[in-house]
């Protein structure tokens, strides 16, 4: 994981906007040395804030997040709790024991695994598919089957890191700002490839309602039709529905740590019973994404991108998953009213460049074809696209808050503080 993913104090001035013909312009103005109040070079603050404001005011607001956003979740010491790919590699190796792990890797000695757990699990899956008719006593097949089972169990445990002690302040800021848009607009839709419960925990602490495809019954079960439901307040003498505020949709494109399959039903549970419902890191995730319930989520994402007057904010997602990246590129080509904001620290690959503090950093080589195409569109003068170098935590601070805190919310906060103080709860 790049060093600039490290958790640091949030500061919106860390953001940089890509300007065609110039490169990455700093957030704040550059002042003249001899005249502290005189601006030598204008910063990108006004442009970034305007882009976010326009996005939040769009008829349809979508947010797409990936693994990078989870690094904003920290423990009490301010350390990131979400595991990176290197952490998962080490955890799987420990769980499998060095002897078994080395033996599995030796099966693919000619491959360039490079301590990448996704590559290793991909090779294991291909191996098992090629040997699906092997005799049940085939030791290599038995060993790799057991290794894959242990690896998946370990990954599930490592990703289930959110607790009442986890600091999810950045997620809470984003949830509050995107979830409190005017109720006359369509509900904001968050699409995430993360398995963790950061957004759910942030919503719980702020008493936001999440529509995520699960029922509101005692045993929560999944049904795609639940995404069509909404929440209204019924008041005597009022015929029109009164939609309640603080509601958003959450689509978990690769599943979740608290989803379990029991026969044909998918239930919300964090027990060891049932089969976990999530797409593990391996090359077959493209094919797996076209199976239910993932297909429901992906279909909703593709449909939402085609809606008129739609804005998509992307953070912590590196556009390395083709089944998600291609629909975004296709929608940009087909939907003239689609606006795209991508905020990620991967745009500037060298931390040294950032540390220099130059007001403008020249254009840098981008890590994949999708980001490179977005950059080409910006260079060609496409005003719909804004590329911002920065972390999820920085973006969370910069997003505007369209709605002031209501009397109902202030009252709920006072009551919650009173109850938590009386019961000694940390949150």
List the topology elements:
Blueprint: E1 16-19, E2 23-26, E3 30-31, E4 39-41, H1 45-56, E5 60-65, H2 67-70, H3 85-96, H4 98-106, H5 117-130, H6 139-159, H7 169-179, E6 189-192, H8 198-205, E7 209-211, E8 232-233, E9 242-243, E10 247-252, E11 255-262, E12 265-268, E13 275-278, H9 285-288, H10 294-305, E14 310-315, H11 322-334, E15 339-343, H12 351-356, E16 360-361, H13 369-379, E17 385-389, H14 392-398, H15 407-423
Overview of this protein structure:
The chain is globular and about 75 Å long. The chain has 2 domains: 3-80 and 166-254 and 289-398, Rossmann fold; 85-159, no CATH class. Helix content is 38%, strand content 16%. With 427 residues, it is an alpha/beta fold. It has a 10-stranded mixed β-sheet, with helices on both faces. It contains 15 helices and 17 strands. Mean pLDDT is 89; it is low at 1-9. The chain has helices at 45-56, 67-70, 85-96, 98-106, 117-130, 139-159, 169-179, 198-205, 285-288, 294-305, 322-334, 351-356, 369-379, 392-398, 407-423, and strands spanning 16-19, 23-26, 30-31, 39-41, 60-65, 189-192, 209-211, 232-233, 242-243, 247-252, 255-262, 265-268, 275-278, 310-315, 339-343, 360-361, 385-389. The two termini are 31 Å apart.
Fourth CATH level, the homologous superfamily of the largest domain: TPP-binding domain
Average pLDDT, rounded to a whole number, is: 89
Query: What separation lies between the terminal Cα atoms?
Result: 31 Å
- Which stretches are low in confidence, meaning pLDDT under 50 for 5 or more residues running? 1-9
Instruction: Estimate what percentage of residues fall within beta strands.
Output: 15-25%
Shape, principal axes of CA atoms = globular
The biggest sheet, with number of strands, parallel, antiparallel or mixed sense and barrel status, is:
10 strands, mixed
Task: Please name the CATH architecture of the largest domain.
Answer: 3-Layer(aba) Sandwich
């Amino acid at each position: 994981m790049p060093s600039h993913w490290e958790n640091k104090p949030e500061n919106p001035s860390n953001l940089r906007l890509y300007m065609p013909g110039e490169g990455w312009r700093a957030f704040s103005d550059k002042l003249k040395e001899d005249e502290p109040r005189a601006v030598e070079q204008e910063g990108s603050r006004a442009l970034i804030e305007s882009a976010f404001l326009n996005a939040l005011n769009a008829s349809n607001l979508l947010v797409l997040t990936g693994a990078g956003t989870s690094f904003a979740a920290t423990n009490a010491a301010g350390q990131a709790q979400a595991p990176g790919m290197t952490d998962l590699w080490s955890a799987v190796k420990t769980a499998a024991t060095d002897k078994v792990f080395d033996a599995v890797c030796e099966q693919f000695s000619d491959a360039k695994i490079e301590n990448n757990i996704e590559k290793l699990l991909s090779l294991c899956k291909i191996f098992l598919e090629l040997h699906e008719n092997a005799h049940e006593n085939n030791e290599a097949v038995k060993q790799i089957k057991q290794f894959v089972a242990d690896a998946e169990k370990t990954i599930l445990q490592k990703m289930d890191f959110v607790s009442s002690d986890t600091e999810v302040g950045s997620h809470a800021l984003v949830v509050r700002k995107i979830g409190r848009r005017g109720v006359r607009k369509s509900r904001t839709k968050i699409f995430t490839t993360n398995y963790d419960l950061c957004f759910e925990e942030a919503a719980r602490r702020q008493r936001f309602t999440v529509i995520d495809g699960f029922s509101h019954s005692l045993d929560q079960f999944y049904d795609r039709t639940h995404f069509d439901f909404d929440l209204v307040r019924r008041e005597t003498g009022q015929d029109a529905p009164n939609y309640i505020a603080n509601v958003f949709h959450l689509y978990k494109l690769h599943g979740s740590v608290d989803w379990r399959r029991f026969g044909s039903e998918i239930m919300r549970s964090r027990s060891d019973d049932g089969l976990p419902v999530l797409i593990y890191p391996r090359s077959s995730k493209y094919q797996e994404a076209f199976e239910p319930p993932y297909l429901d989520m992906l279909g909703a994402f593709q449909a939402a991108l085609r809606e008129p007057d739609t804005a998509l904010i992307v953070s912590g997602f590196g556009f390395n998953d083709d089944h998600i990246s291609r629909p975004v590129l296709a929608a940009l080509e087909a939907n003239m009213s689609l606006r795209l904001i991508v905020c990620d620290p991967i745009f500037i690959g060298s931390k040294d460049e950032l540390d220099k503090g130059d007001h403008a950093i020249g254009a840098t080589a981008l890590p994949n074809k999708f980001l490179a195409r977005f950059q080409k569109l910006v260079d060609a003068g496409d005003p719909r696209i804004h590329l911002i170098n920065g972390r999820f935590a920085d973006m969370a601070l910069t997003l505007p808050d369209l709605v002031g805190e209501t009397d109902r919310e202030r009252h709920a906060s006072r009551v919650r503080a009173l109850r938590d103080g009386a019961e000694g709860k940390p949150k």
